[in-house]
Amino acid sequence: MAGTQIPGLLNLPQLLAADQQTGKSPKSCIFVFQYGGLSQLDSWDPKPNAPSDLRGPFKPIATATPGFQVGELMPNLAAISNKYCVIRSMSHRVPVHNVANEMLLAGSSTPRKDSPSLGSIITRLQPAHETMPSYVWLQKFGGGAAPAESAWLSGGFLGTSCSPLLIGERHSDNPANPGFRPTPFASDPDLTTSRLEARRLLLQNTTSDASSTAPDPAGARLQQLQNRAFTLLQSNAAASAFHVDAEPDQVRDRYGRHPFGQNLLLARRLIEAGVRLVSVVAWMGLAPNDRFVSVETWDMHGNAGISIFDNGWNGLGWALPRADAAMATLLEDLDERGLLDSTLVVMAGEFGRTPRISRGASAIGRDHWPNCYSAMLAGAGIPGGTVYGASDETAAYVRDRPVSPEDFGATILAAMGIDPRTRLSPDGFTLPASEGQPIFSL
Description:
Elements: H1 12-15, E1 28-33, H2 52-55, E2 60-62, E3 69-71, H3 75-79, E4 84-90, H4 97-106, H5 118-125, E5 135-138, H6 149-152, E6 165-167, H7 193-210, H8 217-233, H9 236-241, H10 249-255, H11 259-273, E7 277-281, H12 316-336, E8 343-348, E9 352-353, E10 358-359, E11 364-365, E12 368-369, E13 373-379, E14 386-388, E15 390-391, E16 398-400, H13 405-415
Parallel strand pairs: 1-7, 1-8, 4-14, 5-6, 5-7
Antiparallel strand pairs: 2-3, 4-13, 8-13, 9-12, 10-11, 15-16
């Protein structure tokens, strides 16, 4: 694909010229949702020459890649720009949180009610070993802006076997809190392995007797899922992977002692233990004297009484430096452990923010803007130091190489070694895994 590029950078089709992974071990993925929509102008796509009422107070800084700048609140990611690529031309037309999130999850501009998420598709095609969950979700979406639970918790038409294991029903359920124990593995201490096995056999015998007169595919599938659940409950590897407190203090400090930092550390532990996909909602926690409103950290209208440029929970001054440090630590940690080449790391929101700063009664902010925004990809064989696509002079519209939700989803699947054309619909042939085109040639 032709197009402009920053001097000294590779073209993304070259950058993503990964092989088809035929016969190779499947890859893993950590997908970070910047729930609410990060401002592209204050992060990945600064516009220093724009008028002051558009560009905001934060100045751009140089990265380790010549010609590539990011916002000044991201010094840690700037220093390791060789490890990731940025797409500056994400685009769609829906400025509504819940719908746009469903689009992002499904990789589709018009998702069906039963469309599986990309995570469920990956789970179906690249399941983990039976002693580990395939798909884990850290921190539940919340508030009226959340997508329908059917879009991310049900598995869609692929069924509940492809749905994620949810950790973090409430905003306080995260490993930044002392005494955190993931609910699925917090069973009664009196429930020994032998008692659990006895219960499994009793359930199996009961269901076998009830269905002995005729074969029942649905019943057989249910029994298979029940056996998988019992296997997970009895797996020491699965339970121990959730124990973030086993990490050295200096590692936990490096990620940051806030919900997002500790959830990212947990995501790394889960990937290292064999989980195929971990989704993380980038809930950054509360600043001092804040009260909890929602986990929509990046929805920075100023509607929480906090300016988009302030240091409260709903302000860039609080959220972006913490996200910067935690994400840079994750990429470095994965690299140091030899996991980055086999782990795709994605960070994106459902849309961006308006170039023009809005001025409300109590605080200033930026409103919803799906026409042009940014996302980050790293790992899984993707060489870094690259910017794909370009926005116009105010980051309002795509100037070069737009990337739709379909194309973004197809790119993620392809980077995972999955052919987006794989047929997955209920009848087995009508719908492909993705209707988009990867932004590189397979």
